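Listing S7. Sequence submitted for prediction.
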Amino acid sequence: MARIHVETIIRAPLDEVWDATQDHRRHARWDVRFGRIDPVPGSVPAAFTYATAVLPGVEIAGHGVHSGERRQADGSATSALRFGSADPRSLIRDGSGYWRYVPVSGGVRFLTGYAYRTRWGRTGRLVDLVFGPVFGWATAWSFDRLRLWLDHGVSPESARRRALAELSSRAALIAAAVTFDGRPLVVLLALGLALGVPPHRHTPAARRCRRRPTKADPFDRRAPLESRVGLDSGGPLESRAGFDSGGPLESRAGFDSGGPLESRAGLDSGGPLESRRGSGSRGPRGRREPLMMSGPAGEGDPR
């Protein structure tokens, strides 16, 4: 299975980081990997659908289930989920992961670890040699975008505009060197400047995030994913989170796998998910019937 690890330090209260990452509307604003995240109403364990535009007019859909949550005595929190996609165009077939929130001096150490299996056989494994690093970069870029939002008040939309403006400037520098000079040395110099000059401090940059766990990290990727989440490793993650692992992810979330996810949740597929359930998209995902595994009642609701 392909594995990805990303972490950053966010100078904000844990509850604020929690809200920005667990509310499905706020999550989709900063995480470039998702174009839309919709909770499935009434699902137990809490389920959701997501969609990502990979090309103009081309959207890949998937689904997920929250498989466990835990609060530790030291104030840290962990949430786990399983995800997958039935879309044959999706390289990712299924996977699982966690988000970890660790209080540190002046803020929160926010990290993720996830693993996924590819489809398309050997071809999929070859494609993942490129897709995996790009997906890891997108995760890190998104984490820094979140940090800028909570640390410096730079909205995700403003951060995206800044990133596009800088990208355009760097591309223009290279194009100018090729067009108006063309000498290899000048082109290489322009290329070096375009790639080497650090982004503005209010522009997201994946390079600011740690991409590999340290050897001393208790969430080292060499450990089983379940132990990194804080769950027992005595059986499948689904059963340890309180639901059967004997069938497809969709059926384990309480809906049939014979049709579109919306119809399986009792919704018409003719409009946005919010309107189909007769209400706005109110309420963060983490507050929709969370599956608390441990921790005092009334605390925040880890995903």
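Caption to Listing S7: primary sequence and predicted structure tokens for the chain studied. The chain has two domains: 2-152+209-287, 155-201. Confidence is low (pLDDT under 50) at residues 219-303.
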